[in-house]
Every structure is written in structure tokens, then in C-alpha cells.
Write the C-alpha cells for this entry.
Amino acid sequence: MVGILLMSHGRMAEGMLDSSKLFFGDDIPQIKALCLMASDNPEEFDEKIRAAVEEIDDGQGVIAMCDLLGGTPCNRSALVLNDRMQVITGMNFSILLELLGKRMSVNDISEIDIPELIQVGKDGIISLNEFFKAAQQEDSY
């Protein structure tokens, strides 16, 4: 099973993991959350990333998701990038839920369509006000 590593500034990654348990149960295999706190040393965070990847990779690869492009979790994950690890920045809950579902039906990270995952995340970002406004306009025709 493809491993999933969530990384964030503060406890966002832990919150996303906790929320995903509402959909996938309390014991989600091969997923880990790393939270970079203000007091953490970036070089020590490198080791946490390496250890987490080693822990959750059973040979099928790891998809890491970071909260922010250019932030420390993202920048530090670049040090361990390889063909067995993909990193997506701007993580959101839609992407995580999609990935959790998809990884159950694949045998390797190469079978995960990263651009499709990113599109799922983008598609979930809308203005609800504008959505309802457009729906009302369609109903009036």
C-alpha cells in the first residue's frame, strides 16, 4: 500500500489525520503526520521526515503532502525526493480523502495519478455564495 505522509506548520497535519478517521476508521495503515513547531530545528525535521518515510513505505512508495509551497516542511521534503516519493503542496482534505480511497486499489505509487489528485483539490475550492448564485440563475431560465 502506498504510504501517506502529512506535513504542516503547527498541528494541521494531525488534524487532517484525525478528521480522516471519521471516513476511514481509527486504524488507517501507513499514514503519518509530522508537525513542525516553532521550536523545532529544520535539520532535526529532516530526520523525522526520513524516519517517517522509512516507517510507512512498504516498497510501494510514499506520497507526502505539505501545507505550503516554499514552507519548511515542503523545502525539507525536497531533500528526500526520489522516484518512490511524490510531494504535493497546498494539501487539503479533499486530496487526502481521494488519496486514501485510491491507494486501496493500486499496487504501486506509479499507478497514482498525481495531476488528477491535485485537480480534485482544486475542484473543491469554490465560493459557496457564487455556487448558489449560479444555481439560482440557472433555475430562473
